[in-house]
Amino acid sequence: MFDSVRLQIDIVRAIAFREQRERIGKSQFGALGLLLEPLLFVAAWMALRIVIRAQGSEFMNPALQFGTGFVLFFLFSTIALRAVSGVTKSQRFAELRRVRPLDVLMAGALVESQVYGTCLALVIVAVGLVQWQLTVADPGQAVAIFFLIVITALGIGISALVIGHRVPLVKLFVKLILRRVLFWTSGLFFSIVNIPDYVRPLLLWNPLLHGIELFRHALVPTYPIPGISLPYLLVWAFGSIGFSMLVYGNNEQLLVSEEVSQ
Amino acid sequence: MAVLDVLSPRTGRRYAHRTKPPMLVHLERATKLAPSGAVAFADLSLRIHAGQRWVVFSQERDSRSALLQCVAGLQQPERGSVTIRGHVSWPLGQLPGLSGKFSCAENSRFLLGIYGQRGHLEEELALVQELMGISREQWCGPFSKQPVDIKSSLKLALTLACDFDLYVINDTPLLAFRQSPRWKEPWQTLLERRLQTRAVLSSGVQPVAGLESGSRGLVLTEGKLAMKGPLEECQAYFEAQNSVKDNNWKRRKI
Fold it and tell me: Could you say which residues from 18 to 37 on chain B have a Cβ atom under 8 Å away from some Cβ of chain A?
């Protein structure tokens, strides 16, 4: 069993290597462009948020709070949206029999994790340089939360893709939620502690909110997280990926998209 | 000669079989149409076991090509089934997954990362580079800008560098490459090693050198299986058929 897992890891790494090279080739600034594009996007949103309401959060540095929130959100939505869209024909490598559609999706998630993980590290280091103090109280938990967010995104994306083939409305609904609803309800612009008690239970259904708040708490232990639960995030992560593997097994061909890549 | 070890497609490791050689590919009553719409082969059943060597004779290039594509798993027959249990190569000289934007080194790293032996990536890359015998600039330059002979040599080198259970050989690119100045002793050594120790399915008008002994043949005539048996008998039958056809054609011309 370990040999087959190692073989799949090799295949995923090879595909991730190729995708990374392709993206570097497409980017105007080469390898630096891979980081610049998401960083500039996040910086624009952060600036907008800080300018609109000049007062930041009282619990942690506003740049750190908003920066981590945006990066983690875009990581989650990029991976999930790619998974929901399936594997395009050019990505499929149909002639390479060893490559499965799931390998392509996992490789994509790996590349996005590398890019956004580096962005996250840069944000944390940049804030640390300004403050002359690196704010990472529990790096182990921070890394674990990061990977749980990645796993949740992949699981939700694949599940939505497979179910969406039977019930197309599910795919549209999930895309809408990923693009619009989660953007406003995942704690990018606020801390859960600032949310009124009568609204908080509704927002706490969102697993990404738990992930982002737990990540912030791992950086700054005094950052309050009322109602936030690590077990809830764990259930979502392993539940979604477990369910997606269950439905993937019998529906592998559904992961291939009919759309032509551009 | 029996080969007792087979590469597991799941784990990528070789394991030994103590009983009869395992079956790698099973075509069952397969029918395939050529792109022109003609029947490439009809109702063909074929089992290829580990260590066996097969040669396909046919005057119709579409028939030979379609059979190789189906055995390699690149195409599916219109009727019947193809079951692939082993680690089967793509037709020699036809290498999927290459990108013109990447360099030879990057393309090699990608394909060997998927099909190479685990833990031997750097050795296999060195083998491919040695086989190709090109400069570092060409090795790291974009694949699309390389001359045709370098592109052909890369495709062949990558196919031979990977350790498959069954090699599918379309003899046309191989024969063409053998006549090029790039064909040197390391190529011959590696090709012989692969042909001797692994199963082979080859196609063409003549069998590939190295496959003459111990091989089996099958003859396709207008898409139908005309003969299946020892290579020498199939070759003789095929040549006799061709000479009859040539004589008939000459008589009609007169």
Answer: none
| pTM > 0.90: yes or no | no
My answer on whether B122 and B160 are in the same domain is yes
Q: Taking a C-beta distance cutoff of 8 angstroms, is the pair A154, A79 a contact? A: yes
For residue B38, being part of any structural domain is answered with: yes
Residue B210 lies in a domain: no
Q: Is B208 part of a structural domain of the chain? A: no
Give the model's pLDDT for residue A260: 40
* Residue contact A13–B113, C-beta within 8 A: yes
Q: Which domain holds residue B66?
A: 5-52+60-86+216-253
Which of B24, B15, B4 lies closest to B72, judged by CA?
Answer: B24
Q: pLDDT (tens digit, 9 = 90+) per residue, A176-204?
A: 888 888 988 998 888 898 888 899 999 99
B107-146: per-residue pLDDT in tens? 999 999 888 888 888 989 988 888 888 888 889 988 888 8
**B110 and B36 in one domain?**
no
Flag whether residue B99 sits within 8 Å of chain A, measured between CB atoms: yes
Contact A104, A83 (CB under 8 A): no
B128 and B199 share one domain: yes
Instruction: Tell me what ipTM this predicted complex has.
Output: 0.77
Taking 70 as the pLDDT cut, the residues of chain B under it are: 1-19, 204-214, 245-246, 248-254
| Rounded-to-integer distance, Cα B141 and Cα B136, Å | 8
The reply to whether B121 and B195 lie within a common domain is yes
Q: What pLDDT sits at residue A207?
A: 94
Length of chain B (residues): 254
- Mark yes or no for CB contact B10/A10 under 8 Å: no
Confidence of residue A262 (pLDDT cuts 50, 70, 90): very low
Q: What is the token pair recorded at B54?
A: 């097969």
Asked if B60 contacts B71 with a C-beta cutoff of 8 angstroms, the reply is no
Question: Rounded to whole angstroms, how far apart are CA atoms A208 and A77?
Answer: 10
> In chain A, what are the domain boundaries?
2-255
Contact A93 B96 (CB under 8 A): yes
> Does any domain span residue B145?
yes
